[in-house]
Amino acid sequence: MTMNVHAETIAAIATAAGAGGVGIIRLSGSAAPAMARTLLGRSPRPRHAHYCTFTEKDGSVLDRGLIIHFPAPHSFTGEDVVELQAHGSPVILRCLLARVIELGARQARPGEFSERAFLNGKIDLVQAEAIADLIASGSQAAARAAVRSLDGEFSARVRALAEAVVRLRVWIEAAIDFPEEEIDFLATPQLLEDLVATCDRLDDLLAASRRGVRLADGLHVVIVGRPNAGKSSLLNALAASDRAIVTDLPGTTRDLLRETIDLDGIGMTLVDTAGLRDSLDVVEIEGMRRARDELARADLAVLVSTDAQLERDLPLLADLPATTTRLIVHNKIDLAGSAPRQAEIDGLAHIWLSARSGAGLDLLMAALRKAAGYTEDNQGAFSARTRHVDAIERARQHLHAALRALREQRAGELAAEELRQVQHALGEITGTFSSEDLLGRIFADFCIGK
Fold it and tell me: What was the pLDDT predicted at 178?
């Protein structure tokens, strides 16, 4: 989608590297070259760095630096863009910003540069969001995933799926428009095969998007169990510090304890919770309420138990959202004289370890990396947001509804409408179909200068 935005020139401090570094004032809009001409005393040559003395209106010197002009449409925003590079002093940059505002610019809104780039067709909505994700990335894996989204990897997969849906719509709607043909095109095996293949591709994209959300936001891991199961010891072992108090007294942990760790470049938030049991202690009851609330928001719920107590403890994981991954840790194998191991039982991952000795901790760390979507090189991983996952889930529901309509009823009209909804949901991701309210919410979260 290409939409020319208002040519009003905006300005913002793009970066400020400190008093000893370089600061940048970025201008975008049709008046930007004229402002550069006023500051430089002549028209800047496109894409060349010009040494310049930045002066106030009365001729007093503000600073000395560089001016670079990027003519439209070959710039980040698609408009005329001018960069003023000065010394990184915040005072100097604020004065220089005031000078260009005096020349007719205005202060940019948060995210307005990226918004103009989107509206001018330079980037799509996923790429615009990837800029914010890259800036906010808290780990190496998150930063690399954001770069892949910025390079268009996520967008390309969405567009390819949308094109496949369009082809299916054309096929079905042509069959509806020409019912007099002797061949029943809706019953053609190839149509159903293509629909099933598209469903599989959409499922793969949904899984990759959920992984991308975890890479961008970090994995939210909540540790639960009965008192004295070893939850705090496990958190300390994973954090490699005595972050939580560990005693033999039940109910030692009464509130949520959070610790952020970086595991192979992936950010994770570990949450130690109060032991879940029957209690009359008001403070402990409140701690358990908070533990259950936190558990409902977890990406990964880790139940800490022992072989002897597991059957009694499994109900602690009941009523969790379907999207929450579950992991069972059999702790205290050092007391039982057992060796560390892992297994999958009834669809749940089980790990036997000792939080106190560290035996088997490497197995748990590998499971955490897997839950966060980590691979050896994270090849193909891209950043994603919850709204992307929501849109893909809606697309998936409509796509499967289209498949059922053809399989069970051969109802072409119903299938065509469901496919239209699929196309619309996918279009919301890249911004092909987007409301002004959605754009406002997205770009309002950006920092000024981006």
Answer: 62
**Cα–Cα distance list, 122 to 82, 109, 113, 152, 255 (Å):** 17, 19, 11, 12, 48
Maximal C-alpha separation, the chain: 85
How far is it, in rounded angstroms, from Cα 6 to Cα 98? 22
The fraction of the chain above a pLDDT of 70, given in percent, is: 82
Higher pLDDT, 393 or 235: 393
Q: For residue 2, give Cα distances in angstroms to 120, 288, 442.
A: 5, 53, 18
Token pair for 79: 């408009």
Would you state the pLDDT for residue 244? 44
pLDDT of residue 101: 92
CB-CB contact of 135 with 147 (8 Å):
no
- pLDDT for 160: 95
Per the model's pLDDT, the better-predicted residue between 203 and 174 turns out to be: 203
Q: How far apart are CA 180 and CA 210, in angstroms?
A: 45
Instruction: Report how far residue 96's alpha carbon sits from residue 84's, in angstroms, rounded to the nearest whole number.
Output: 9
In DSSP notation, 193-241 reads HHHHHHHHHHHHHHHHHHHHHHHHH-EEEEEEESTTSSHHHHHHHHHTS
Between 312 and 434, where is the model more confident? 312
**Strand, helix or coil for residue 434:** coil
- Name the CA radius of gyration of the chain, rounded: 28
| Statement: the pTM of the whole predicted model exceeds 0.85 | no
Q: Distance between the two ends of the chain, CA-based, in angstroms? A: 20
In 3D, which of 279, 311, 273 has the Cα closest to residue 295? 273
The arrangement of strands across the sheet holding 22-28 comes to 50-55, 61-70, 81-87, 22-28, 10-16, 106-107
- The CA-atom distances, in angstroms, between 74 and each of 69, 122, 173 are 10, 9, 40
Contacts of 156 (CB under 8 A, 6+ apart): none
Answer for the pair 126, 430: CB distance below 8 angstroms, yes or no. Answer: yes
Return mean pLDDT, the chain.
82
Which candidate, 213, 215, 172, 211, places its Cα nearest to that of 195? 172
Residue 15, pLDDT score:
59
d(CA 341, CA 307): 13
Phi/psi region, residue 332 (left: phi>0; alpha: psi -120 to 50; beta: rest), is: left
- Asked if the model's pLDDT at residue 1 lies above 50, the reply is no
* 170 sits in which H/E element: helix 153-177
The partner residues of 341 in beta bridges, in order of sequence, read 352
